[in-house]
Every structure is written in structure tokens, then in C-alpha cells.
Write a structure and sequence with these properties.
single chain; mainly beta; Outer membrane phospholipase (ompla), Chain C; twelve-stranded antiparallel β-barrel; two-stranded antiparallel sheet; 3 helices
Length: about 300
């Protein structure tokens, strides 16, 4: 827990420092744009999106229910290059709520922090070390039953530490390959840990008496691949995609954990935009409603405030 807090604080201070960095003249901006891939210095940017939706019904004979949705997304990167040394940092936050009648439920919830330090080995290859941390902000429930909690802040949380090679044939594409990586699953909620949620060892019982708490940590050692792509595919249209795959050498290495995220953002004008975000997840250790692992898929379509910087 102390290590995770230090990681979060360090990355937060780094991003705050970069955000407060002074403005430059138009000529300096042009020079940095042209030379960003060959000179030293920081390159940074991101997008903020806040989307809304509403359905309002009054005396509607065909039936229905009032509803409203709010969804927010923040994505920021800060990359540093000095000669053969690169340091890439990214933070991605998302949260959404659906209001339907008198009920409110979350529709999106993620915290994703990533940092990668690399040293150039050849034209397109780098020796690299990567750290990635994922969790969520708020509890999740087994809807429609909102009394059964199935997730929480730091339950689960995933930490990946990996050493390997980073292939960067283009500025917008990175393929990180690690044969030596550790993946740690944290379930910092004792009730969920006792139930063996997210693959941790469950509690042990003698009859109805618990004799041993469930483990809050699951350690895995294996191979890890991360493919990242981000590019303006046409005017005012940006595609960002990230695919992660992990194989546990110690148990069922053929059951590869997959996390694939994609964000397509469309800019109408300076402050209005639309986005489509998808996420596909498969993890053999995660059971769906105690029925076994399932392929998970999420899609969010939104139109609203958008600011790219």
C-alpha cells in the first residue's frame, strides 16, 4: 500500500508540474513540433470530455421512464526525450453515472496510470522498463441488487512491472514486449478477498467459522505485451488504441489475460465533440456472477464538451 501511494503521488506531482509549465511563442511551438522526435525536452497533451444524455417523459402513453447520463473522461500524456533516453507517462481517468427513475448507477469507472523508461538500442528498438497501475474510484454492485458489493476502490487493483524491449517504428506506434514481468492483483476489501474475488485465495472455514482470512494479494510471473497506437486518422478525428496481454508462466499459461481499449474522438469545434470508447477484457481468474470467466465488453457513446490540449 505504501509503494502504491508513493507511485500515485509521484505521477500526480509530475503531471501537475508539466501542466503548470510556462507558455512559449508561436515560433518556439513550431520548432518543438518539428524537432520533438530528435531533440531533448517534454512533449505533452491530452483530452478532457464531459458527455450528457437525457430522456424526459410527461404523460407518455406508450410508457417509459425518465433517465439521464453523465460521463467524464480525462486522458493526459507527458513524454520526455533526451538523446537516446525516453520517459513516457500517461494517466487515463473515467467515470460515468446513469440516473433512471429514482435509481443511480455507475456506467464507467477507471483509473489507469502508466510510466515507461527506455534507452535506445537501435533505430527502432529500445531497452525498456514499464510500470502500469489500474483500479477504480467507487464501489460496484450486483445490480439490480444494490446491497451486494462486487468491487471497490483498490478491489481490484492491478500492478504490472515489466522489463523488455520497446519497438517504435513510428511516433504513433509502440510495441512493448516483456518476457520478464510481474502482475499483482490487489483486493483491498476483506469481504471480497474472503470470497476469492478476482482470483485471490479465498478464506478457509470450519463449518460456518472462518479460520483463515482470504488473501488480499495474488502474485503472477509471466510474459507481457502492450501495443499502443494514437494518431489523427483524419482531420479532427483521433484514434487511440491500447492492447495488453499477459500469460502466467506458473499456472495455465495458455489462458492469456487480455485488456483491449479503444477511443475514437471526433471534434466538431473547439468545445464540442463526440466519442466512442470500447473495452474488451478477458481474465480467466475473474468469475462472472460465480459462473466462471466470461469475455467482458463495454461501449460508451457520448456527445458533449470536449477540449484537446
Amino acid at each position: 500500500m505504501i509503494i502504491l501511494k508513493k507511485i500515485l503521488v509521484t505521477i500526480f506531482l509530475l503531471l501537475l508540474t508539466i501542466t503548470l509549465f510556462g507558455q512559449v511563442t508561436e515560433k518556439e511551438k513550431e520548432f518543438r513540433t518539428v524537432k520533438a522526435d530528435s531533440t531533448k525536452g517534454w512533449e505533452k497533451g491530452g483530452i478532457i470530455m464531459i458527455n450528457f444524455g437525457q430522456t424526459s417523459l410527461t404523460n407518455w402513453a406508450a410508457g417509459g421512464e425518465n433517465s439521464a447520463t453523465e460521463n467524464g473522461l480525462f486522458n493526459f500524456f507527458a513524454n520526455y526525450k533526451n538523446g537516446s533516453l525516453r520517459w513516457d507517462n500517461n494517466i487515463s481517468l473515467g467515470y460515468g453515472i446513469i440516473h433512471q427513475g429514482s435509481l443511480s448507477r455507475k456506467s464507467d469507472d477507471k483509473i489507469d496510470l502508466s510510466t515507461k523508461l527506455a534507452k535506445q538500442a537501435s533505430k527502432s528498438w529500445y531497452y525498456a522498463a514499464l510500470l502500469n497501475f489500474k483500479t477504480q474510484f467507487a464501489p460496484g454492485y450486483n445490480y439490480p441488487n444494490d446491497s451486494i458489493k462486487i468491487s471497490n476502490f483498490l478491489a481490484p487493483a492491478y500492478l504490472v512491472i515489466a522489463l523488455g524491449m520497446d519497438y517504435r517504428p513510428k511516433k504513433y506506434l509502440s510495441v512493448f514486449i516483456s518476457p520478464l514481468s510481474g502482475r499483482f492483483t490487489l483486493v483491498n476489501d476483506q469481504k471480497l478477498a474472503d470470497a476469492g474475488a478476482f482470483g485471490v485465495d479465498p478464506a478457509e472455514y470450519s463449518g460456518s467459522v472462518k479460520i483463515k482470512d482470504g488473501k488480499k494479494m495474488r502474485e503472477e510471473f509471466g510474459g507481457y505485451i502492450k501495443v499502443a497506437f494514437q494518431k489523427d486518422i483524419m482531420t479532427n478525428v483521433n484514434l487511440s488504441s491500447k492492447l495488453e496481454a499477459f500469460s502466467n508462466y506458473l499456472k495455465n499459461p495458455q489462458n492469456i489475460a487480455i485488456n483491449w481499449e479503444m477511443l475514437l474522438s471526433l471534434k466538431v469545434n473547439k468545445y464540442i465533440g463526440a466519442s466512442v470508447a470500447t473495452q474488451l477484457v478477458y481474465d480467466d481468474a475473474v468469475k462472472y456472477k460465480n459462473k466462471g470467466p466470461r469475455t467482458q465488453f463495454k461501449e460508451i457513446l457520448g456527445i458533449g464538451f470536449s477540449y484537446k490540449f
